[in-house]
Amino acid sequence: MGRQKQPVRNHSHLDNLDTILAGCRRRNRQSQEKLYRRFYPALFSLCRNFFGQEHDALTALNNGMLRVFQHVNQYDPQKGEFFNWMYTIVRNAALTLLRDRKTQCFEYEEIDDLMGFESPENPLDALTAGDIQVYLMQLPVATRRICGLFYLDGFSVKEISDALGIREGTVKWHLSESRTRLKPILEKALR
Asked: Which among 108, 142, 156, 171 counts the fewest CB atoms within 10 Å?
């Protein structure tokens, strides 16, 4: 009989991520770059929902990734997926940058709570992640930001209001505006 083939070790996505994270814990620059590059598309897309300018989205992403690298030792796999942990840190970095810049530019026109926005229906449910990004980019920046926080990240109206430092009525108006603007686009796309 001939020589038996050695089983090929399957380097799964997780094994590779564990190796990269181990390098990041040692503050290895190559590992940090690999982690950054691996998740850049998803995280940049997240940050792009918050800002009209690519530069601002990139600043938020870089601020968030710096925090990820500084606190990578605090990640506990028992508490959830690494991507979710990192996503939360980057999203919070984007919210912090928004709050810091709020005094520089007033993107939100405060609206009194007369609308009573109540809709359990998520207009984005029938779409893929890629489609969602395409449609969200058609909304004005402030509306896109609130729509993403509410429908994609699951923030409540009050949480969005607190995070962005705006009235709940303003959040509700932007949610209503997003539904109004997206409805004809989605109806056409889903035919």
From this structure: 156
Tell me the C-alpha distance between 167 and 170, whole Å: 5
| Ordered domains of the chain (ranges, CATH) | 13-102 (1.10.1740.10), 129-189 (1.10.10.10)
Single-letter code of the amino acid located at 143: T
DSSP per residue, 35-102: HHHHHHHHHHHHHHTT-SSHHHHHHHHHHHHHHHHHHGGG--GGGS-HHHHHHHHHHHHHHHHHHHHH
DSSP string of 101-159, one letter each residue? HHTT---PPP--S-S-------TTTTS-HHHHHHHHTTS-HHHHHHHIIIIIT---HHH
Closest CA to 152 of 185, 128, 171, 183: 128
The pTM of this model reads: 0.61
First to last CA, the chain: 61
